[in-house]
Design brief:
Blueprint: H1 16-23, H2 29-39, H3 45-55, H4 68-79, H5 85-93, H6 100-110, H7 120-125, H8 135-151, H9 156-170, E1 187-188, E2 206-213, E3 226-234, E4 243-253, E5 258-261, E6 265-269, H10 272-288, E7 293-297
Antiparallel strand pairs: 1-5, 2-3, 2-7, 3-4, 4-5, 4-6
Length: 298
Amino acid sequence: MKHPPEFTLQFDPSEIDALAERYGAAQDDDALLAGKQIASGNYSRDDLKIIVNWKSPRRAALLDDNKDGDIAIALQFAAALTTPEAMAVAVLTALHGVGIPMASAIVTAINPERYTVLDYRALESLGIANWPDTLDFYVAYLEACRQLARSHGTTLRTLDRALWQWSKENSGTTEHHIRHSPSAQFAVAANTAPSMLSLSNKPRQLVMQEVLSKPGYENLPRSEWEFYELCIEEADDVWRPGFIVKQTHAQWIEIDRQVMWEEPEWVRWPTLKSAQRQYENWRNALQARGFARSDMTF
């Protein structure tokens, strides 16, 4: 990378073990067991789905568009100890429904001593608010986590759990606005206008973008507030050029007292025309459900 990011731990390293303990490692058990099965040579769709569910349950259904043979080839290559980190992640992103963050979760489940998960919470805990969706960035992030783990005498998994937990406990107390997440991406203030409900303050190569809501939502109780962002982005990954169509749901979460964005559902298409068809299909389906009010920007 031309300008390597500066990853700075946002809390005292002495808190790592306690934070990781509060995270609750048991929630990782199923994914790590599935990853162990893959590492042992069982390159199955079922084990892959378990890992994807761990990261984002809404994305698991997208795996159904992949052939068993393609899944097996990608998992075998990614699991090989001789495969460079960037290539292991890249081959997984060739599967429908798998982006770099999801691919990082898959390789982490397969080999937790070698990899770690690229996650918005972990990045927030390292002082990163905006980041490129590229393989180079993931490799830089992975190396930074390895160095931190070595420096503080811990494992990558323990460090990842601590980073995630610190962000969860401190979300809303920092000035960061974050994009990626296993469950919720970033919060916006309750009185934010729909036109400002964009998923990121990171510059994106947007082809089109809009936020859909139900007419008159502002007169409803906040517990009934819901939004969808639809967008087409030009892919900036030299490995896989094309266009990415994203649909992202947000709703008011009372316990957090704010609107929370979930992880986007996305599809990559090789041409703008095919991406626009996907966009219109999603838009029409949302309008049929009552999300007819749009704030459109191009």
